[in-house]
Records
---
Amino acid sequence: MTIELIEALKAEGVTVKADGDFLELSPAEKITDDLIQQLRTHKPAILAELRREERREKVLRMLAENPNTQRIFVTDTKSDSNSVILTFAIRDQYTFEMLIPQEKYDAFLLLELIDKAQIQ
């Protein structure tokens, strides 16, 4: 339902952005009471989806800016209070996310594992 709602809003010409714990919507004249109720009902999931897409766009942009790099990842330690979210992009292949419990996250070990695996 969340992705469908975001896509329906975009199709109607409504811009939806995450701004911290708030949803930023424009233009104001397209915001109805029914829409506000739907957004309130699904707000946490909408924010999570918008943040996920922001992370994905960030790693893809980083790959575009670094043509000799085959893989990029970013960490998000703020979106989930229990997990570190890793967003990976592998050139010409795919993007994906991993959730690692914060108490088990070790950035140096992660870099070592990626290097050993030689993900291309």
Note: The helical segments are 2-11, 33-65, 107-117.
---
Amino acid sequence: MTHLDNLPAILTRQEVALLLRITDRSVDQMCRDGRLSSFKIGSNRRFHRDEILGLIPPLRRPTTFGRALSA
């Protein structure tokens, strides 16, 4: 298990989908309609960890994440 504060500062689309428990396509749609902010490195979309964790209500936010995410 990985403590959420130990996640990398910059997350991939797949990591965001796992954290929010949504599909990769939903992440893309949320970026297109402005619900998620992101930036690109080359052709790959990246996300700031703190912004993504801010989307999870504090009372529902787990303190650990079930599987380790690769950097």
Note: Helices lie at 13-20, 24-32, 49-53.
